[in-house]
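Support case: user asked for a sample of complex input and structure output to validate their parser. Sending the pair below.
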Amino acid sequence: MSEKLTIAGRAYDSRLLVGTGKYRDFEQTRLAIEASGANIVTVAIRRVNIGQDATQPNLLDVLPLSRFTILPNTAGCYNAKEAVRTLRLARELLDGYKLVKLEVLADESTLFPNMPETLIAAKELVADGFDVMVYCSDDPIQAKALEDIGCVAVMPLASLIGSGMGIPESVESRNHSRSCEGSRVGRCRHRHGV
Amino acid sequence: MLNVKVNGHQTTLPQGALVAALVASMQLDGKRFAIERNGEIVPKSAVATTAIEDGDEFEIVMAVGGG
């Protein structure tokens, strides 16, 4: 596909967003991500382990900000407060970087989003100057609400983790595409490591 | 001595220590990290001047694989 993906005023050659979890090591992470051609790479924000070996490289050494758009995300957050806190720390860690991925989960097994908390967090983050890409349910009304708040991209749930079903073209997603015609907000399908 | 908690672990630091000393003790100089003191972010520009007080609680985070 030759059309560029534009999010928050920046154009990307690749429309693929990739994660950095579940690789064997950083070398494998780097090789896979380079091979994918993705420009946008998600990372998680976690506590530093006490007593860890400081001589070991860290993820951002192998995925430099000069080459990739690093997208900190709130995987593992179950309420708005935790998610906002995590992304404020991410912004500090990444020297004021504004583009973030918000996801507030409701359920550990399905990883379904908690939409009431997602909406609260999105409002707070947009007011605080973040460019928010947001994981949401496959529901055009919720997606529109997130656009109205000022999120730069909505990322509706695409497929249940581990279901092997791929991305079903649901009634909701067809309606979603229709309801977003003329919309300026970006849309990305969201898959949780399936 | 100052009794503080770092990422949930109790530890001690010398009286008068600055946040920069904590960062150095964790060998984080020159690395990308963010630090919270009692729930408030300590900006990088303030790490070298912020004094640690007895009972402070710190959270120090880095970017890791995930998402």
